[in-house]
Amino acid sequence: MLRQFGSVENALGASVAGFTKIDGIGTRTAERISRSVDNFNVEKELALADKLGVFLIHLDDDRYPAPLKGIYDPPPVLYVKGTLQRSDNLAMAIVGSRRCSTYGSEQASRFGHILASSGLTIVSGMARGIDTAAHRGALSAQGRTIAVQGCGLANVFPPENVKLKGLIEESGACISELPLEYEPLSENFPARNRIIAGLSMGVVVIEATARSGALISAKAAMENNREVMAVPGKIDSPLSVGAHRLIKEGARLVDSVEDIMEAIGIIGDGLKGHVSGVATEVNERVEMPLFDVSQLSLSEYERKIFDCFDGDAVHVEDI
């Protein structure tokens, strides 16, 4: 439409006859588009965007991310809250299960931290689980991170990530192709995942069930000539099925940040030394207890129960 009409404003003001001049759009589709435009209050949308501090960019805007522009189906318009920088063209996506294990969360945070500290922007979907851990890892390194939302930017999903959303906007950006007040409907997320892949040089999958949405991001990465990588997990865990399947189908197995950087061809001797140093520091922190027990005021009986937990899954009978 932008190529046909030259601008978003012209497209919004086009007639049914104008829409039918675009290849692949018949009269019925043109009528649907026209009705949708008529029902969409542009002035209200722009006023809300201004109130929320959101700006809009289209395909011909110099601020539009160059990697995303090159995919098969780039969003014609992006809503952005935060900042987009040229350095964000060096980005890595980290995706995975919403219901992840402690291991998965730790690895997502670790990879996010080390990659961000090495100058890469971390891209994910701000969902529960792996996505949240990846964003937090990047933020802990004072690095840049971009969240691609499956709803309009006036909404927060999941709602408990409202604080995280604010931190991401301060250290990167939250973006969406959807109108500001669009609800987080399930059908939004597969299309959202192509944007995650499109913004990135590669996609790292950390824990994914057989039907995980993370596999859609991996498929989109393959279709757009991005590197697809997967972190191995426990062979008897349902959370490992998706990642292990990707590896069998040709995805690169990665168990370190060095593996990721070698896969995308950006690691040299100087950067390798930095990555190794940061990895050692992060690994030591990951191995620290999740809580300072001295601050919990536990009874002797409660302390015995607490000591049964070491970060891995524990059966109730063992406790």
Keywords summarizing the entry:
alpha/beta, Rossmann fold, single chain, 44% helix, DNA polymerase, domain 1, 319 residues, 9-stranded mixed beta sheet
Structural topology:
Elements lengths: L1 H4 L2 H5 L3 H4 L7 H13 L2 H11 L2 E4 L7 H4 L7 E6 L8 E6 L5 H16 L3 E4 L5 H11 L4 E4 L13 H10 E5 L11 H11 L3 E5 L7 H10 L3 E5 L9 H8 L3 E2 L3 H8 L4 H18 L13 H7 L13
Parallel strand pairs: 3-4, 3-7, 4-5, 5-6, 7-8, 8-9
Antiparallel strand pairs: 1-2, 2-6
Helix pairs in contact: 7-8, 7-14, 8-9, 10-11
What does this structure look like?
- This is Smf/DprA SLOG domain-containing protein.
- It comes from marine sediment metagenome.
- InterPro entries: DprA, DrpA_SLOG.
- Residues 57-264 form the Smf/DprA SLOG domain.
- The chain has three domains: 1-40, DNA polymerase, domain 1 (Orthogonal Bundle), CATH 1.10.150.20; 82-283, Rossmann fold; 289-319, no CATH class.
- The protein is globular, with a radius of gyration of 22 Å.
- It has a nine-stranded mixed beta sheet, with helices on both faces.
- The longest helix has 18 residues, at 269-286.
- With 319 residues, it is an alpha/beta fold.
- It has helices at residues 2-5, 8-12, 16-19, 27-39, 42-52, 66-69, 102-117, 130-140, 162-171, 188-198, 214-223, 241-248, 257-264, 269-286, 300-306; strands at residues 55-58, 77-82, 91-96, 121-124, 145-148, 172-176, 202-206, 227-231, 252-253.
- The chain is built from 15 helices and nine strands.
